[in-house]
Write a structure and sequence with these properties.
The structure is a single chain. The chain is mainly β. It has one domain: Lipocalin (Beta Barrel), CATH 2.40.128.30. About 10% of the residues lie in helices and about 45% in strands. The protein has an 8-stranded antiparallel barrel. β6 and β7 form a beta hairpin.
Length: about 140
């Protein structure tokens, strides 16, 4: 009983009720960095993405992103989506996800993505799309 009470008092009360904020610098498990600028009242945002991995021999460049958050400021764990227009390849990636805050106040963006690469003919469309997941954690 006393241990449970002590643990309850050690966990910040506001951490569990804290809302996610997409604005900031994020890093995923592969070391890619993403910067999300302020979300406006309509829920749209922009930013930049610097991937740590790519299926190309070209120099990796920071690429712009554009997105939208569902019900900005109203939800504790908002859903969102954004696209990245890669500046070093003929491909675009669409991410969808949700922001979560754990019991310690740590924010995470759990995402799923689709990358579409340009192919020269319709018969090659089978190899043009990749799918994956990424979990981003806040850097600052």
């Amino acid at each position: 009983c006393c241990l449970l009470l002590a643990l309850t008092l050690l966990v910040p009360r506001d951490a569990a009720s804290r809302k996610c904020d997409l604005q900031g610098l994020w890093r995923n498990e592969l070391g890619s960095n993403m910067t999300v600028l302020a979300t406006n009242t309509a829920g749209t945002f922009s930013g930049s993405y610097h991937t740590a991995v790519a299926a190309t021999n070209k120099q990796i460049l920071v690429s712009p992103l554009q997105g939208v958050q569902q019900h900005p400021g109203a939800k504790r764990h908002p859903t969102f989506g954004f696209t990245v227009q890669w500046q070093f390849s003929d491909s675009t990636t669409a991410f969808v996800g949700q922001c979560f805050v754990d019991h310690r106040g740590k924010e995470m963006l759990e995402t799923m993505w689709l990358l579409r690469e340009e192919v020269l003919s319709h018969k090659d469309t089978w190899k043009a799309t990749r799918v994956g997941t990424s979990i981003f954690t806040r850097v600052k």
